[in-house]
């Protein structure tokens, strides 16, 4: 059971090596992306309603953040997810949550694609260096694109949940809303919990 918990909560990644020459010297050099720990910080350019700006995780301190990685602009599954996220904007706003879309495309690609999709109610960020995708362990190195990762980060900047799908399958946006609401109760929430249901007492 403990082993399963560790696997579910931690993605081991060969980064931040402890060796002077930056060559990994063993398991001790692995960094972890772990539930309850601070989420990796980032700085990315983003495009939002006609404007390019820089975005940092720290900009959203005091808010819940949904960091939503998708493979590429101008694809088939991605717009179904991004448009559904935009439709749910008022629900996310009501629970003090900020959605941030992320792909490895440039801000100019985002701008061009949004001329077809229409404005979204949240920024699309450019991980053109692929560093943030790598930090969150969703980068497919041999293809240079990201898996479909959705990361929930609390107002203090700590990682509370993540789900990662292969590129072929879209995610359930209602489940992201449900999870944020469940975390906000501060209680123990049973299987299938929805807002208004009984919780199991204080965690």
Structural features, described:
With 203 residues, the chain is an alpha+beta fold. The chain is 27% helix and 26% strand. It folds into two domains: 1-34, no CATH class; 37-171, Glutaredoxin, CATH 3.40.30.10. A seven-stranded mixed β-sheet has the order 4-3-7-6-5-10-11. The protein has a two-stranded antiparallel ribbon with strand order 1-2. A two-stranded antiparallel sheet has the order 8-9. Strand 8 (139-140) and strand 9 (145-146) form a beta hairpin. It starts with a helix and ends in an 18-residue tail after the last helix.
Proportion in β-strands:
25-35%
- Give the CATH H-level superfamily of the largest domain: Glutaredoxin
Radius of gyration: 17 Å
Care to count the β-strands? 11
Q: Can you identify the CATH class of the largest domain? A: Alpha Beta
Could you name the ranges where pLDDT drops below 50 across 5 or more consecutive residues?
Answer: 1-31
The number of domains: 2
Outline the biggest β-sheet: 7 strands, mixed
Instruction: Write down the secondary-structure element order.
Output: HEEEEEHHEHEHEEEEH
Q: Kindly state the mean pLDDT as a whole number?
A: 87
Spatial order of the strands forming the largest sheet: 4-3-7-6-5-10-11
User: What fold name goes in the CATH topology slot of the largest domain?
Assistant: Glutaredoxin
Helix content: 25-40%
Which structural class matches the secondary elements? alpha+beta
Number of helices: 6
């Amino acid at each position: 059971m403990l082993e399963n918990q560790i696997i579910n909560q931690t993605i081991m990644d060969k980064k931040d090596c402890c060796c002077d020459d930056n060559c990994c010297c063993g398991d001790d050099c692995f960094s972890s992306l772990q539930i309850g720990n601070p989420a990796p910080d980032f700085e990315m350019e983003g495009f939002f309603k006609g404007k390019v700006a820089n975005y940092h995780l720290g900009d959203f301190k005091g808010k819940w953040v949904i960091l939503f990685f998708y493979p590429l602009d101008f694809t088939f599954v991605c717009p179904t997810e991004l448009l559904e996220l935009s439709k749910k904007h008022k629900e996310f706003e009501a629970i003090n949550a900020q959605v941030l879309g992320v792909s490895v495309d440039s801000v100019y690609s985002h701008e061009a694609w949004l001329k077809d999709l229409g404005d979204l109610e949240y920024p699309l960020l450019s991980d053109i260096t692929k560093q943030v995708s790598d930090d969150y362990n969703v980068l497919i190195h041999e293809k240079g694109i990201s898996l479909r990762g959705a990361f929930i980060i609390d107002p203090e900047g700590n990682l509370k949940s993540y789900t990662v799908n292969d590129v072929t399958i879209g995610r359930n946006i209602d489940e992201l809303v449900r999870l944020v609401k469940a975390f906000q109760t501060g209680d123990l929430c049973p299987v299938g919990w929805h807002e208004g249901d009984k919780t199991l007492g204080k965690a």
